[in-house]
Amino acid sequence: MTGVANSIVGFSTIFFCLAIGADGITANIVGYAVALTCSFLLNRHYVFGVRGTISHTEVGRFIAVFFTAFGVNMAVLLLTQSMLGEGSPVAQVLAVGAYTLVFYPLTRLFVFRRKSVA
């Protein structure tokens, strides 16, 4: 559910920016910036149940995980497009799947890891 909500926020932001006259690249950058912020907040609170003050370390780690997962996404996309064609929906699905397979565990282990009880 958080992924769906985040996608709606991101696409809505992109379409709003386009509607008020922003070019496609600007709209995309703004949309992703808003969606990344939304993703952080939704994942932190609803997916991983973290409460309390947000730390700079947490934000930095989240951004690092995002770029890592996005890099994997792009690598898989380029590889699968080279085999299936540039417009292949299968390539897109595989790329998004790879993103998710990297993003979730790294977010769980590196960003919002639970403190062990001593």
UniProtKB/TrEMBL annotation:
<dbReference type="InterPro" id="IPR051401">
    <property type="entry name" value="GtrA_CellWall_Glycosyl"/>
</dbReference>
<protein>
    <submittedName>
        <fullName>GtrA family protein</fullName>
    </submittedName>
</protein>
<dbReference type="InterPro" id="IPR007267">
    <property type="entry name" value="GtrA_DPMS_TM"/>
</dbReference>
<feature type="transmembrane region" description="Helical">
    <location>
        <begin position="12"/>
        <end position="42"/>
    </location>
</feature>
<keyword id="KW-0472">Membrane</keyword>
<feature type="transmembrane region" description="Helical">
    <location>
        <begin position="90"/>
        <end position="111"/>
    </location>
</feature>
<keyword id="KW-0812">Transmembrane</keyword>
<dbReference type="Pfam" id="PF04138">
    <property type="entry name" value="GtrA_DPMS_TM"/>
</dbReference>
<feature type="transmembrane region" description="Helical">
    <location>
        <begin position="62"/>
        <end position="84"/>
    </location>
</feature>
<feature type="domain" description="GtrA/DPMS transmembrane">
    <location>
        <begin position="2"/>
        <end position="112"/>
    </location>
</feature>
<keyword id="KW-1133">Transmembrane helix</keyword>
<comment type="similarity">
    <text>Belongs to the GtrA family.</text>
</comment>
